[in-house]
Structure formats: C-alpha cells, structure tokens
Design a protein that fits this description.
This protein has 474 residues and is mostly helical. It folds into 3 domains: 191 residues, MFS general substrate transporter like domains (Growth Hormone, Chain: A, Up-down Bundle), CATH 1.20.1250.20; 56 residues; 207 residues, MFS general substrate transporter like domains (Growth Hormone, Chain: A), CATH 1.20.1250. 80% of the residues lie in helices and 0% in strands. It has 19 helices and no strands. Helix 3 runs antiparallel to helix 18 and helix 9 packs parallel to helix 18.
Length: 474
C-alpha cells in the first residue's frame, strides 16, 4: 500500500525539454480537430457505400459530437478521482480499438456505434490534454506557450482535414480516413507514457462520486447540443425545438439544484463561481459562440448570397485559417506583454469587434468579411491560450481535469448556440428553400436582412458574455 505521494519531478524549464510529452498531448488535440473535419468530406461516399439516409449521415457526424460533449464533464470528474494520465491512456487505447473496428463496418448503424465509441474516447482524452499540460509546467508563460502549441497542432488538423480527406478518397476507401486515428493514438500513448509523470497516490480527488449529478449533467449537455439541430432542421415555428428547449431548462435546473444540495457534487458551483474560473469560462463561451456563428453565416453568404463555388468559398475563409495556424508566436509575445488578465480581455474584445464589423459592413463586400474573420481568429487564438490557464489556476490541483472539461464544454455548447441563433434567424426571416439556385429579389433582401440580424444578435450575446467576464474577473 502506498502511503506517501510520489515525488514530483522537476518542472521542465523550456518547451524543448518537454518535447516528448508535448508531442503526445498535441497528438490528442490533433485527433479531436482532425476527426470530424476529415470525415465530413467522405459523407456522400459513405452514404452511397452504406445506403444511408440523410438523417443517418447526419448522425454519423453528430453522434461523435453529442457523446463527446455530453460525457466530458463526467470523465473530467473521473480523471480527477482515478488519475488524469491513467484515464488519458485508457481513452487512447479505446480510440485505437474503435478506429480499427471501422474495417469491419458494413452498415450505417454500425458506423454510428463506432463513432459514438470514438466520442467516449474523446471525452476521456481531450480535457486531460489541457490538465496535463497545465500540470507539466509551473511557469505561467510556459503554460500559455504549451497550450498555444497544442492548439496550433489541432488547428492545423482542422485546416488540412478536408483536402487530406479528399486526396485519400482518390486512392483508398473511406475507412482509411478513420484508420488515421490509429497512428495518432499510438503516438499520443508513447508521448504521454514516456513524457508525463505517473499519477501519484495522493493527487486524486477523494470525494464520493455523484452518480445522479453525472446523469443530470450529461443529460443537460446532450440536450443543449441536440436542441440547436432541431431549430435548424424544424425551424423556429415548429413545436419540437421549443419543447426540447423547455426540457433542457428543466433538466439543467435539476442539475443546479443537485449541485447546490449534494454533499459531494459532481460540479462544485462554489469553485465555478471563483472569479478566474467564471470569467475564463465566459470568455471561452463568447469565442465559441462567435466562431461557430460567424463561420456558419459567412459560408452561407459566400455560396448562397454571392454565388461563390465551394472551392472559392473555402479560399474566402483562408484569412481566418492563416491566423489560426500561424498566429501562435505572435500570441505568445502578446500575452507576455499584456499579461494573462489583460491579454484575455483584449482578445475577447477582438472577437466582439470582428462580429460588429461583419454585422455592420459584411454585406458591402469581401474586405469587411475578411477583416471580421481575421479579428475573430485573433481573439480565438488569444482566448484559447489564456482562458484555460486562468480557469485551471483558479481551481485546486485535484480538480483541474473537470476544470479542463468545463472549458471544452463551455466552448462546445456555445458553438452549438451560435449555429442555433444564426439558423433560427434565417428560418424566421427567409421564405422558401434556402438552397434553391434562383432567388427572387425579395428573397435576396430577406437573406441579407437575416444575416444582418443574426450577426447583430451574435455580437450582442458575445458582448454581454465578455462584459460579464470582465466585471467578474476579480
């Protein structure tokens, strides 16, 4: 029986010194960002190969996202109790096995099941990548730089996923796209196994598990992620999305009541209320809302409103992609100059400014659209690197995994809300088929009005979140 904590190894004094661990942690984030982006391009091929309906194809993608988002909070709590490194390695092994199982898939139902298992693996691994990177270093500058590096690798995966997927499909079956996860998960296991210190006996959180809180928390997040789909598919005039919204609010209320009354809640709301934690989560929610909503609206505007081809529209998004991928070194220098608190606030202001530029000027030409994409991308890079550090600094060391899960959950739910707001406004203001090739002059005016109203709503919501975070930062 171990009666004392395992001695903590000396903290690395540079990123180079911790390169093995960072390679493993970066591989985890690469899997998260690459997985959906590389698969989406293959959905038509999968549909033909497996004779899948449109709804089934949607769940090939959504099953992963819903399971991933719904279980992050639970597995964050599990990792805090049983060891972050241990849960991370188990999740990576599960990912490897699920990816190999793709070879034996012969129906869309089986593929959805495999994708759901991958969502479980992502929920076990992704929050841990932030928590372990935070634990690896003691210096705040190195923490920010490590998270910037990890997020950069993930964003590269997000950017290269579609063209890489298209190339692979020309020479191999679609199953090869998911088999890419096998070498990534093996690389991650090697890097984390060799570069991250084993979980100590004294480090885990020892409070009793809150099973009811876990069920209510998972149900709340799953419903919050599914409801936007109902609004986009059924429209704001349908009863179904509003009924689902009511159910979500009811379950969320029960979760909050449970968190306030349980002796050992899954999520201690007193910890979440700490200024650095609450403000960091609000900043992450603001950027998630902005990024998803802006990307949704700009993509529709370029292709449907302006008649650009998909390839040209993809090129139109390049300013955002370039900033997201190449902005890491600039972000590091900026944060060192501004400091954590001022840096994250200024980054969030960039997000709101970008949305405002798009809302007010985005219909006048491409230059304002590009400027909006760049400003929001700058804000995403800064907030993404700093907000997570601030959240984890505000928590006890044995609660950092659930803190990292909270960061990811806030971003996921807010992203879903951004698409829901944009899609609902379009459904309410635009009459007729949005994807029809020929619009009347009245429909063109309706679309432009809907984009303006939707982007103004996103601007206002993000501004409220950023203002609240600024006022509650101390």
């Amino acid at each position: 029986m171990i009666t004392s904590a395992q001695p903590r190894l000396r903290s690395p004094s540079s990123l180079r010194e911790a390169w093995i661990a960072l390679a493993g942690l970066s591989a985890v984030f690469l899997f998260e960002m690459l997985d959906n982006s590389i698969l989406n391009v293959a959905l038509p091929t999968i549909g033909r190969d497996l004779d899948a309906s449109t709804t089934a194809l949607q769940w090939v993608s959504n099953s992963y996202a819903v399971v991933f988002g719904g279980l992050m909070l639970v597995f964050g709590a599990v990792a805090d109790r049983f060891g972050r490194r241990r849960i991370m390695l188990i999740g990576l092994a599960l990912l490897c096995a699920a990816s190999l199982a793709t070879v034996f898939v012969t129906s869309v139902t089986a593929l959805i099941a495999v994708r759901s298992v991958m969502g479980v693996a992502a929920a076990m691994t992704t929050p841990g990548s932030i928590a372990l990177a935070f634990r690896l270093f003691q210096d705040d500058d190195l923490r920010v730089r490590s998270m910037t590096l990890i997020s950069t690798v993930g964003l590269v995966g997000l950017a290269v996923g579609p063209p890489l997927g298209g190339f692979v499909l020309t020479i191999a079956p679609w199953q090869a796209l998911l088999l890419v996860n096998v070498p990534i998960s093996v690389l991650a296991m090697i890097g984390i196994g060799r570069g991250i210190q084993a979980d100590s006996a004294e480090e885990p959180h020892r409070g009793p598990a809150d099973f009811l809180g876990g069920v209510l928390g998972t149900a709340t997040i799953v419903l919050a992620l599914v409801v936007p789909t109902f609004f986009v598919e059924q429209g704001a005039r349908s009863w179904m999305p509003w009924a689902a919204t009511t159910l979500t609010v009811a379950v969320a209320t029960l979760f909050v009541v449970r968190a306030r009354t349980a002796s050992h809640p899954l999520l201690d709301l007193k910890l979440v209320a700490r200024p650095p934690v609450a403000s960091g989560l609000a900043y992450k929610a603001a950027t998630g809302l902005a990024a998803a909503g802006l990307t949704y609206l700009v993509t529709l505007q370029l292709q449907l409103g302006w008649g650009w081809s998909p390839a040209l529209a993809a090129a139109g998004m390049l300013p955002q992609v370039v900033v997201l991928i190449a902005g890491g070194p600039v972000v590091n220098r900026f944060v060192r100059w501004a400091g954590l608190d001022r840096g994250v606030w200024l980054g969030a202001v960039c997000v709101v400014a970008g949305l405002a530029v798009y809302a007010l000027l985005g219909r006048t030409g491409y230059v304002p659209v590009a400027a909006a994409l760049v400003l929001v991308a700058i804000g995403i890079r800064v907030v993404g690197a700093v907000a997570g550090v601030n959240v984890l600094k505000g928590l006890p060391e044995n609660r950092t995994s659930i803190g990292a899960a909270l960061v990811d959950t806030a971003s996921q739910v807010a992203s879903a809300a951004g698409v829901a707001v944009s899609g609902t406004v379009l459904a309410a203001l635009f009459t007729g088929g949005l994807a029809r090739s020929a619009w009347s002059s009245a429909q063109t005016a309706q679309f432009e009005q809907a984009v303006t109203v939707g982007s103004l709503a996103l601007t206002a919501m993000s501004a409220v979140l950023v203002g609240w975070a600024f006022l509650h930062r101390v």
